Records
---
Amino acid sequence: MATATVAAAPAVRTGKQPGIRPSGWVGFLFIAPNLLGVVAFTLIPLISVVVLAFTDWNLVSGLGGITFTGVDNFVAIARDPGFWHAIALTLAYVAVSVPLTVILGLGLGIALNRPLPAVPYCGRSSSSRTS
Amino acid sequence: MNVVAIGMTWLMLMNPKAGLVNQVLDVFGIQPAWFASSHWALPALIVMAIWGGVGYCSLIYLSALQDAPRQLYEAADIDGASAWAKFRVITWPSLLPTTIFLMVTLIIGASQGFGLIALITAGGPGDATTTISYYMYQTGFQFYRFGYASAIGLVTFVGVLVLTLLTWRAQRGRALNG
């Protein structure tokens, strides 16, 4: 009986070639949990934003309430003082915070890149001491 | 670090009456009302954003510094170069790709900054901290003008893309070995 199962096993293996096949719907089942999230919360919103940008829609009116208005939205944006105010604030925010973050980060990085009192226990400085 | 943790910490630090920041500033006789003042709300948010980003930057810089070309420093030492000259001629150029990476990611992140603003000021006082992402959020989810908000999003995307490309352009051919 034991010999029979041993003999049967290789036959099955060569016949159906079990193991991981590189393609097929089973693979999609494995990534389905993550793919579902990506499609629902990234891909669909990403595409719908491009479409909705050319429409007038207030959400409450439902999907039937979507009316295409061409480039009206973009014309309105160009004339919207609130938009330009927001752009100015954002540019100020970026122009001040980004360089300062980089400069302070560089200063801190250089300050840390040397033998410090506690370094025999951490990484590079200990190896540079021994070399 | 989580924006909520950063926000709550700085909200306490910048409390106009009991906060540490104003206790110290009291020595100089100034007491900004930070988030209640339309002049100081945006600077306060910028301070928070900087504080939240510096740690990450220094970590990336530290790892880049440990990759810096040793033989160049040695040559500079032999030539008797000053510390500033070594920084300007060796350190800064060899860090340029790192700097550009940090600049690009920070510009993208800061242009979309939303968490801190939603948590701390909600765009206010008035519209003093209504940056583009918060304006888009207001338009879409408070005034329910989804089409208009989507158009703002699209314009913002193009704007950030242009900013990123400009940053990228600025460094071309200036790196030490590129």
---
Amino acid sequence: MKRFWIGICLLVGLLAVTVGISVHMNRVHMPMAQQLRQAAEAALQEDWQQAAVLADRARQSWEKNWHCTAVFADHTPMDEMDGLFAELKVYGRVREKEHFAATCDRLAKLAEAMADSHHPGWWNLL
Amino acid sequence: MLLSYFRTVILYLILIGVIRLMGKRQIGQMEPSEFVVTMLVANLAAIPMQDGGIPLLSGLLPILTVLGMELVLAVLALRSVKLRRILCGKPVILVENGRILQDNLRKTSITMDELTGHLRQKEVLDIRAVQYAILETDGNLSVFLYPKDRPASATDAGIQVKPQYLPITIVEDGYLFRENLTLAGKDENWVRQILHAKGSSLENTWLLTVDAADHICFYAKEVRP
């Protein structure tokens, strides 16, 4: 019977941890994606101050949660996002609005995909 | 991670079903759920081991989920005959009173070649001598010959045999097992006396065992040239 309860504790504990991870990934990446989309929009309207602030907030959020994300997520898209954030800085400095907006959108898509890959939807389960 | 959890639960249950449907021939000395656990754990451990880009947790989490499922199902199967039947199946009689039950052979996908092969491994050449041949849930075949065809035991022959005792290891490779010494009802003085009589020391003893009838088995360490 002890083994049964160990098994139950293990299953319930793991379920709780994984639900927590899923919620955390969603909380971190969805607002980040939203900020990046708004930054893209601001850049296209040549509001560079607003675009820089939003992109910077997204980057800070990404960097703040980088280690935690690396523990749970595949490292390949993370490396890609690191590279894209570095590119974004340069596009912002030289005010290349098309490239800046495109990179923001790409980053937003990757962040959404990262959150979605932890969502227990049927499309992910199957 | 949550996906990994649910996927592992689904795959674990599906794999048990698949192994059960594949029949008992595929298992060999393991229950279907044990076979699935062995198969899954080995593969799950290999993924994060090979690829540094995949977090270790994505390998650990499914392994722990499989472990949790196995612990829970093992206890549930112990308590519920129905669940045990679903998870492990039930033994199937393949030969009864020298007659091959062809229907059961077909159901378990065992060919005549495999049946005779199993019987030969049990040193049975004539199926007519078999009273029962039962395919167990772990894929092994239990064979019971007619009493007249079984080798005579000491009781059958009316022979008085000496009782047999389990030897207890006292010294192994120069190491004295004190807990075994207590178990055998001996003390270190006794070991010293025995080793002295054998002209050896504790360090030079490879193996020393004793059983309840005080039969001693002693091997000295071989001297390397």
---
Amino acid sequence: MAKISYGQLFSILLATRIFSFTSTQVEFSTEQMLGMLISTLIQGLLLIPTFILYSNPKFSLNRDIFLGKYSVVMYSFCFIIWGAHSFTKFWNVTKSVYIPLKSELLVSILIVIVCVYVASLGLKAIARGSAIVFGITILSVIILVFGAYRNIDWLNILPVSDYKSIGEYALYDFSASGEIAAIFILLSYIGENKIRGVLLFLGGKTLYILSISVIGVVVLGRVMGIVKFPFFSLVAFSQPFSIQRADTIYVILYTLVGVISITIQSVITADLLKILIPKIKFASIISVIIMMFIAWGITNLSIDLSWIYNTLIIITAFLIPLLTLISQKKNAGGVMQNET
Amino acid sequence: MKLNSILCIILTSSVLTCCTSCSGDRIEVRDRSFVEAIGIGSVNPYKITAQIYNKEEIVSVDGEGETIAAAINNAEDNQSKAFSIGHIQLLVLNPQSIENGISLFLESNRVSPNCLAVLSKYDACDVVEKIDSEEIVRLIDNNSRKGQIFKKTLCEAYDDYLGAGRTVALPVIIASNRLLMGIVMPSGTLEILNEEETRGLCWLNSSAEQSIITFDYHNKTINYIVENCNSTILPKIVDGNLFLTIQIKSKGFVYEADEINAHIKHSIAQKIEKIVKSTVEKTVYELNADVIQIDKYAQKYQPKFYEVNKDNWEEVLENCTINYEISVE
């Protein structure tokens, strides 16, 4: 099994979250930031069973997972749905944001080819690539701050006016955080400092989302309410040069995090499919193609699947690890009784 | 490994053919007209004039349509090349076209973010047709740097428009080499401020750096050069009405004296107050126009009052009391 470091885990998870955050159509506001903080806190709590399981060096995912292959099926389903969700987000953005290709189909085909290629290289390649993407992310934030500081108006940060909406924003952030479902599986690929990587990710994503949201609010002000994709409007209005535009760096970043987000789901799905069907070939390619077809269905039928995402996240990130933990404790108790 | 090689070849060739100029639908640079400025003139139907980048002379093309987008399309059809509007640096507007003009460019996401919005006393199309847009941009930059006006990008102008007062303050082209600030009222009429009111507006928007204040002191005319200025508004609610304290802090130097003594400071503060008061009298009390972000301060510091009164903002401005605190260093 390919092993990756905790730093690589951090950058993979962060890239995945950056992708869903930059694709968001939810306007940035004080309520949205508070909602995100609440959601992150809940995510941290939901991950506690996973942390307990992986803090035991004897824990093996393949051997100890609750309900064995049934859980593996559930995770595979979750990642396929999540990958499809990523595809739909990508298509939505490419419809509104200027990408220098006229045909949406061509954009999709190119992205699928890239995803299939990267997925065929395996987790290790994605992990190395995500570290580079992390560097590009930092660079893009620096350029963003540099371009935005002239347009900053701190008056735009307003106190909370609608407390009820904080819950809605928390729910939205939670349903956009599919990557926490992958943590339970991805931790099995990590050698040391498993929990540190996840904690770093939770802190890093909070910092990233908070800083971009604050910049968005202070730069866009009331215009935030009329724009379709706040992140792309923010970067369009935070240019470091007077005439020459620097949007390309953000489009490149968006494509890269998009590719990582989709391929990581397909690579994990491929590994899980191999557990279910050991003789399966081209599993990652098959999973990408399935994802794309589901995405096509979601887009054309305009289905709102947020409640499915929320349910899947709770089941895969919390319920299965919790039941695994309980069954492990029971087994350990049984062994102790047998020994006495 | 073999599959990887095949995928790698497909990917590289796809990128080379699709993302470069090799595919059939690409437009070469020489086949593009780079639009530098657009003037939106009359409405119903919309008439626009686009100024196209050309080193030697002013090249402009007109278009007409039921919407601004249709008018731009028509202008593109009236010449031989494809329009590129991503680098546009100036949008000249008539007061009636403010909402549609700015929102179209903002929503399209393809206009240059630092594109400046400016009003014209005359027909916006005529301005774009006759005056080099780079000259106008330079004039705006220069006047803005010296605290005579303050420039606004499309985003900032639309942010004003979305405020409770729905009024926008923008530079107005008075003549080919002269700018003042003007206010577009919710009714679409344009109110042009005089020179002193324009300067006051700059002070109230913390944009008076590098401006000069002259005043008489001991029978001598003295020049105070502003190095730094900062304006804030503190809103309070007194007897159900808005009570505003405008605080202006200024730092600068006087050519005619080595240091600014208390008397000079007092004289400068009085002069600044006089300038600022004239602007407030005109904008807040006479026009009931909120061009100094009173709504934003109220929303931030008196949110309950703002929520209740945001739909009657003109009435709020009419009944508000304003106090001044000017400090000079």
---
Amino acid sequence: MSAWRHVRTLLVLAHMLAISLMAFPAPSGGMNRSAWKDPSVQAEFKAWRQRLAGWGYELTAEQFEEELWQVASTYMGARTAVLQPLNPYFMYAGTWQSWRMFVGPHTHPARLRVEVERDGAWELVYEGRSWEHTWNSAIFDHDRMRSAVFRYAWARYARTYPRFVDWVAREAREDFPEATRVRVSFFKYRTRSPAEVRAGVPVEGEVILPKVRTLGGEP
Amino acid sequence: MSAWSRLVDWMDTPESGTSLALVRILTGGVVLRTIGAVWWSGVTQAIWYDAAHGGIRDLGRGNFLMKMLGGPTPERVDGMMALTMLLGLGVLLGMGGPIASRVIAFATMQCFMSLADLNGHAGGSYDELITNLLWLLVLAGPTKTLSLESLRTTGSWTSGRSLARWTRLLVVFQAIVMYATTGWQKVSAHWVPGGDLSALYYILQQPTWQHFDHSWVAWVYPLTQVGTIVSWLWEVTAPLWLLAFVVSLGQGGGRIGRWLRLLHVREGYLVVGMIFHVGVAAMMNIGPFTWASLCLYPAFIHPWEWERAWGRLARSTEPPTAT
């Protein structure tokens, strides 16, 4: 019994070490060069280049990204090697640690829009966070669906986005039997600064990723 | 006595299971709420059914448990949701003795993972927090008090049977790891001191997580800057909370320990954390993350503090005796 107390303490400490290693900061979700092109990410890079320049470390945008990529790749390689033997513990004991929550605000967000075509005119039936255009909002506004929709506006999810549009079309076909087409898109915009909001500056943005599917209604 | 032996003794120090029982009750409730909300909203088909059955994506065959069962057909997904909620209820109620309660917690965790892992696009950190909590319940087996097991074996909902201290320490440690490492990753120019401290303002403007439009926050922008720096410092310095928790268990820790106790640092972190989570829940829809996080909090309050508070409450609600 006494030996078990010692073994148990060792196991408790091993658990603490394993989850600490797994949780230690890592740019896992950021190891994607296409995601680096997003204006939110570019704005962060610019702010850090300016800060580094203030500390006497001048870098061009290309140099900064290249150096960052090299450092991050090396670090991630070492991290993978360290965590490899522990993966079964994370996988089967449910002890994954991924706490990259709101690490940087997304200053160029995208709002989902769904339109249906009836009698030759497009009608907005759903828009993210709208009180007016609320078709299927019980589903679109569920937190798990929000998480999915958030991803589909990013280039790295370009393969899944058309499947999402297909799914929206199936739902629209049932709810709008008279509609001829459905159009899914995102309104991507720069978040206004507090001063701009107070001054009443209008939101500037553009519709991106428009995709159209034919429904069953008569044209 | 060696330092190692002292550590073993310290970890094994017996204490009442009240704090951990509250963690268990809340965790069971969060499992019920999380799966129940998916079912209630009607989002199951979109996110957890395969594209062949009306879902958005090709989901493959799922994790090892779903594979063993033959893959995520709609019937299996629906059945798994029902089973997970049933098991979550078992966790909440505190069913089973030392072995059965661990089996129930483990089965809850595996069933929950088999659902959450179906679609990596439709989840969040809350899924991992819930499975971590359930695993800690597997390790601890906390059905000694505030449980059906206590009622069955002692005839009372509460019992004085003790648990080793390490069981609660693991819950506290999990909270600290989560908060500290999320803070250490907030290196955005909008978060760190020396920048414009606009992180909270911009996060509140993100349509993905808003309950409704938060443009009005622009008129109280300085408050969001204060919120940004307070929440960043609170997360980054979370290891101090762990230290404050450890020294609050005794009279040791030297001068630092005395100051941490005197300044009520453990209680301060706890209050700020609760305000932070309740505030986030009021303004944003981040799923069950708030409630899953709050499951960790009872562990920061010592069992004797819960019992003292309960005693006070019971006395204050007693009808006055006739004299």
